[in-house]
């Protein structure tokens, strides 16, 4: 396992370094000037330039990047250019909301994705197979924000079963908090669950054609045991890797979902930071999302390697 990790860590380190460069450059390539935003529309050129010098924005980009990178290595996330508050404090104030949404969506994604995939991979023909394939295809084709709007229309307006927007911490009021959290979590989870289901279904269909499955049938092994002990067991590696990748994508979808359901999380903060050209906040949010996605993917590879010795020996 240590040799497996040694082979993976250099690529992870390179990916994180490349991501830090992209996170640093993206807000600057978008145009706009935070110094102008701070100074106001009526400020003179000299006043704007003075603010740029104060913020260090007059330095060459490589120098700005190195200062930011070394600050990160020291644990300094920087200071917001607009509010003049530490970025770490701003993130901590919003982190709980996003964590509640991401964790709930991840649980729903895993439950629906694996369950639907096993069901679709077990039903081989008939109306049940057609219905499952159609449901997975519709979920795959529907982006999270459209899914959210549909859920609001159906469960929030038509049947009035769930509240449309708002936010209460689950720790403070579990019942109200979960009712406010369920629709945005489902909107995030269902499209990603459909992708996991499709991958598991395809893998189960592939395993079903293997010789060891035919041999088990020839020996008279019950169909349920073949599915559980042979087909499903050899398909779980796909589910592990797919889940790790999709958890990272949940964070990207949270930006739009938080805006639709009026949740005061990191996604909404990122939108505000982009609008105001608050480079420091945008950089940390983008980098943090990618770091979580990369580490989640690495963890899923480690888990897969632990389940399948062939992966460790490749």
TrEMBL record:
Subcellular location as annotated: Cell membrane
GO BP annotations listed: transmembrane transport
Membrane topology: Multi-pass membrane protein
Signal sequence range: none
Record keywords, A-Z: Cell membrane, Membrane, Transmembrane, Transmembrane helix, Transport
Entry's transmembrane regions: 12-30, 101-123, 135-158, 178-200, 239-261, 281-307
Family: Belongs to the binding-protein-dependent transport system permease family.
Protein's organism: Devosia oryzisoli
Pfam families named in the record: BPD_transp_1, BPD_transp_1_N
A cellular component term, taken from the record's GO annotations: plasma membrane
SUPFAM superfamilies: MetI-like (SSF161098)
InterPro entries on file: BPD_transp_1_N (IPR045621), MetI-like (IPR000515), MetI-like_sf (IPR035906)
Residue ranges constituting the ABC transmembrane type-1 domain according to the UniProt record: 95-303
Name recorded for this polypeptide: ABC transporter permease
